Amino acid sequence: MKQYEKGQILADRYELIEAIGKGGMASVFKAFDIYTKTIVAVKILAPEIVLKPVGQERFEVEKEAFAKLGLNPNVVKLFDVIQSGDEWYIILECVEGGTLKDKYQNFGAMTLRELKYYFSKICDALSEAHKLKIIHRDIKPDNVLLTQSGEVKLGDFGISVMEDRSTETEKAIGTPKYMPPEIIAAQKATPKSDIYSLGIMLYEFSTGIAPFIHKEANGIALKHLKETPTLPKLINPSIPQSLENIILKMIEKEPLYRYESVDEVKRDLLKVKQTDSPKPYNYHKKVTLNMKEGQKTIKVGTTYDKLPVIAKSAFSFSFTLIFLFLILILVAVLVFI
């Protein structure tokens, strides 16, 4: 990718101040708009990406998504789009209060009040996106930006798709830590895919730990497919039962069992009270995912990790480790009797 430096002026208008983000598909710079005398964010797409049909489609979808959601207060605003040869730029609102990931790393698990505030705002952004047939596909704390006054802005629609016409709806792409089983299985992404990713975030911010952890990307992916999540209240007993129920319903393996919309998620989340004690949610422990023959590929930035061959398989959740642990305890007890 071409090197860009501080002080460089793009399109005779945007003076680069500093790099604020970089990925395999684009770099983001804080810049000064010489015309309006304001600070903006300039997203520069990598030439090797925009020269490919898939890169061009992603650019068009991201541009369209930001444009359609331009009036939503919880989405980063689009100011301009510039295409000059193999240099393509998206000029966006510069949000300088950090990300939700930064806040999580600094303060750990959130209070119920904080969860309601931040996640209801994300739901508002996704609600409008879904009504416009836009599926984000990369919901994660890094893509939720905060203004210095605490406003919430959803950003980075770089791998989003239009539900009714994209050629990329059945590709396994995203961030493994938050990736829904159906996307891992290269099935069609739907609004419920975003609900799953948001549910993984809600689990993480409620308990202080992600439900599925592994040192390798493919290991995390397999956990999303096959492993039952530990009940959030076992990790953080202070979580209201109603909040645990919401989380578990959001991260059901099969989309069929998840919430129908983010509006329903927001409705239930805002109703949660610390003293709530409804009946525990019955998480579905069997799931069937139809997978294509051959190896599946997950894209993690610029790296690729192969999943084992799984063709039209039914995955059932195993409690083998728990069983072995109980056996060891029993043996230990017998030894000391």
Automatic annotation (TrEMBL):
Which N-terminal stretch is annotated as signal sequence?
none
InterPro entries membership = Kinase-like_dom_sf (IPR011009), Prot_kinase_dom (IPR000719), Protein_kinase_ATP_BS (IPR017441), Ser/Thr_kinase_AS (IPR008271)
Q: Which UniProt keywords apply?
A: ATP-binding, Kinase, Membrane, Nucleotide-binding, Phosphoprotein, Serine/threonine-protein kinase, Transferase, Transmembrane, Transmembrane helix
Which PROSITE patterns does the entry mention?
PROTEIN_KINASE_ATP, PROTEIN_KINASE_DOM, PROTEIN_KINASE_ST
GO molecular function ontology, one term from the record:
ATP binding
Transmembrane ranges, per UniProt, are 314-336
Which parts of the sequence belong to the Protein kinase domain? 14-270
Q: Which SMART domains does this chain map to?
A: S_TKc
Binding site residues for ATP: K52
Highest taxon of the lineage: Bacteria
Its protein name is: Serine/threonine protein kinase
Q: What high-level taxonomic lineage is stated for the organism?
A: Bacteria, Bacillati, Mycoplasmatota, Mollicutes, Entomoplasmatales
